[in-house]
TrEMBL record:
Alphabetical UniProt keywords: Cell membrane, Membrane, Transmembrane, Transmembrane helix, Transport
Entries under SUPFAM superfamilies matching the protein: MFS general substrate transporter
Protein known as: Arabinose efflux permease family protein
GO MF entries: transmembrane transporter activity
Organism superkingdom: Bacteria
Biased composition (Low complexity): 392-409
GO cellular component: a single term: plasma membrane
Bilayer topology: Multi-pass membrane protein
Length: 409
């Protein structure tokens, strides 16, 4: 038992990553599903976006359950939804079935996002306690990145392109269930069941608005690359290699994960501003990639945008948490994640509608410009507030208070 306990954090991190792999697994397959079921980019974006609905429902309905009934039962429930999603995708031969599969995938991710993060941190041995949050981040974002990479390689080079990836994921999820069953419970089981409350305390509202808008911009871009990158590759650049599509979708998550880990000690105020600036650069590169049909620029835009998204999202949450009373951080974090998951659904559907009206190239450039403008607004708001805090008489007369003010984006 002590031997298993020693590896509990690693086992839970594996389970976390295995579940998140399934949420992005269909990315390189949307074009094949479209050819088989006769739908185009708009339907692809709707299928992708239904995932966010499942995530939001799970976050709100089950967000507090693991504190009451324990981490393991809730994680096993998330695994059950992941298994159901993979089975539905294996058997799917119509768009409604794909929608059901995506909702089930979203439910699994919504359950795992908070519960597995808490479980990984709680299971960390004393020597690894300071790295536990980073391990959870890498498991989460790394799993999201591995999904399209794994599926792209299997779709391009292995038989049965619409089946094998989900069969492999079933194996990964089965091993995840074994891992969860093997580790001891980490929760003290307190509180009571109920829907997760959403709210923002008055002292954090200004900071929350700016941080949430930056998170919205960043997550809109991750949604774009996850849902539409293969269509950009084929429709704008004329490249139909599914493995390459998987690499492009993977690169934005890989860049985000690395940046979140490396920037975790950076001042939140400065980090959100830098993240917004990097995101603007990424969108300029994306617009150029689509305008000039450049593969290298498309890959570069994914990497740069991932860096901006990772920095602004993670440090924005830290900035809001700094100003939030400890007993209200769960509801504030949930509100922040609701904004993020709305961002990966509605803008992507808008991209699908625009693509039908204007074509992929024009709609993609327009999307990049819109995100750049939103990020620029956030950056301007941060700079203006920083100057106001620096110039205010209270900041000059009470220098001991200025570091707290400096942390606010």
């Amino acid at each position: 038992m002590n031997h298993v306990r020693r590896y509990s954090m690693a086992l839970l991190a594996y389970a976390f990553a295995a579940i998140m792999v399934g949420t992005t697994l269909p990315t390189p397959m949307y074009a094949l599903f479209g050819d088989e079921m006769h739908f185009r980019v708009l339907t692809t974006t709707v299928i992708y976006a239904t995932y966010a609905g499942g995530v939001l429902f799970a976050l709100l309905a089950f967000g507090r359950w693991s504190d009451v009934v324990g981490r393991r039962p809730v994680l096993l429930g998330g695994i059950a939804f992941a298994v159901a999603s993979a089975v539905v995708f294996l058997l799917a031969d119509s768009v409604p079935e794909l929608l059901v599969g995506r909702v089930l995938s979203g439910l699994s991710a919504g359950i795992f996002t908070g519960t597995a993060t808490a479980a990984v941190i709680e299971a960390a041995p004393p020597a690894a306690r300071s790295r536990a949050a980073a391990v959870a981040t890498v498991a989460n974002i790394g799993g999201l990145g591995m999904g399209p990479l794994l599926a792209g390689i299997l779709v391009q080079y292995a038989p049965r392109p619409l089946d094998l990836s989900f069969a492999v994921h079933l194996v990964l999820v089965t091993l995840a269930a074994v891992a969860v069953l093997a580790v001891p419970e980490t929760s003290s089981r307190t509180g009571r069941l109920g829907f997760q409350r959403l709210s923002i305390p008055p002292e954090a509202r200004q900071t929350f608005v700016v941080a949430a808008l930056a998170a919205f911009a960043g997550f809109a871009v991750t949604g774009l690359f996850t849902a539409v990158a293969p269509s950009f590759l084929a429709g704008v650049l004329g490249i139909t290699n599914h493995a390459l599509a998987g690499v492009i979708a993977c690169s934005i998550f890989a860049a985000s994960a690395v940046t979140q880990v490396t920037a975790r000690t950076m001042d939140p105020h400065r980090a959100v501003a830098v993240g917004c600036a990097i995101l603007i650069v990424g969108m300029v590169i994306l617009a150029m990639a689509l305008h000039f049909s450049s593969l290298s620029a498309l890959i570069a835009s994914a990497v740069v945008a991932g860096m901006g998204q990772g920095m602004s999202f993670s440090r924005g949450l830290a900035a809001v948490s700094d100003l939030t009373p400890p007993d209200r951080r769960a509801e504030v974090s949930s509100t922040y994640f609701v904004v993020a998951y709305v961002a990966i659904s509605l803008p992507v559907i808008g991209e699908g509608l625009a693509a039908r009206a204007w074509g992929l190239q024009t709609s993609g450039v327009t999307f990049a410009v819109a995100v750049a403008v939103l990020a620029a607004v956030c950056l301007a708001a941060i700079v203006r507030r920083s100057r106001r805090d620096t110039d205010s008489p209270s900041a000059a007369s009470h220098p001991a208070e200025s570091p707290a003010a400096q942390r606010r984006p």
